[in-house]
Amino acid sequence: MATRVNMPKLGLTMEEGTILTWLKREGERVTKGEPLVEIETDKVVCNIEAAATGLLHTIAAREGEKILVGRPIAVIAAEGETVDLTTILGAPEPSAATATAVADQARLETAPDTAPDTARQRSADIRISPAARKLARERGIPFERLQGTGPGGRIAVEDVERALAAQEAAATPQERVLRTIPLTGIRGTIAERMAQSWAQVAHVTEVMEVDMTEIVALRRRKSPEWERVHGVRVSLNDFLLFAVSRSLRDFPNLNARLEEKVIKVLEDIHLGVAVAIPEGLIVPVIRHTDQRSLWEIARESTRLATRAQERTLTLDDVSGGTFTLTNLGSYGIEIFTPLVNYPQCAILGVGRVAERPVVVPGRIDVRAMMYLSLSFDHRIIDGAPAAMFLQQLKERLETLRELPT
Known about the structure:
Blueprint: E1 3-6, E2 16-22, E3 29-30, E4 35-40, E5 45-49, E6 54-59, E7 66-68, E8 72-77, H1 85-89, H2 96-110, H3 130-138, H4 157-171, H5 185-200, E9 203-211, H6 213-230, H7 236-250, E10 256-259, E11 262-265, E12 271-273, E13 275-277, E14 280-282, E15 285-286, H8 294-309, H9 315-318, E16 323-327, E17 346-350, E18 354-360, E19 363-377, H10 383-398
Parallel strand pairs: 12-16, 16-17
Antiparallel strand pairs: 1-8, 2-4, 2-7, 3-6, 4-5, 6-8, 9-19, 10-11, 12-15, 13-14, 17-19, 18-19
């Protein structure tokens, strides 16, 4: 019996998928569980496996086409089997472009012919003031093109000047477009989620300066040993992930989300780490971050960052985040106001570590300083507890002189 292959729902937020590459051609033999087609969801690129063994009888979705979840993309059948495509695929649904074209054609066919018969208009019949007539002739503007706004539709000087301005504007050179970037795939998802966050979240950002001197010194001193013993290079970002996950234990209301007028405080701490890729920004998730050692965090963050650059992240890698960290320090940014990764309630922006003169007891010293910017949803958490979270995080980072546990 023929098997219909549908666009699967691979995540709670997935509504459609884009066909990227068919890995098999029509008529080729496929085995159940074998990669059949590469698709792009709103978060990742992944392979869809064949749902049965047989021949790829029909490909029902072209490469580059967006298909709604649950709609057919292919049919697998036994060799020599007769397949009623109308029955198995159902009636085809017109694409958005086709529907628009049909609607436009219908409007054209039913619209009344309201265009003026300019051939039968005579200049002598047009009501126009002497001054407007003179100006129009001098500037070469046909009377028939003018729309009068005076009494009884009489054309005034202002109407001629308005027509001249429109003519000059039309003659202005058009802007030169280097390239166009469709708001689709990951870029489209980013646009949609950022607009949703801005519209729905009551954003507030608090900024605190942190002295990273001790951590910088610890990392410089211990990095060779850590790489030799644990086989991983620990970054400053890994220290931050370690410290943030521990501080969230004491401030669980920052590890929460708002759903239908109910605040859900989440027990598990899964930190998302924003990673820049050519297509935009993606946020892989380190699960149970507060239960991992510094080296486990470093190893997992390296793995996820590599997979993000290679476009091999799975849906599990990018799902379930409860709090996000985004670091622009490597770009020289010191302070910024990140948008909350909705439906999470908070995100921590990390700026660059820079040496600055700082007043310490009895003297001025040069210290490695960094700004942390905490953006949060004021509907879920107030400014004071958010500030207390930053205070504890600051203290934890500034007093970390030995190996963290």
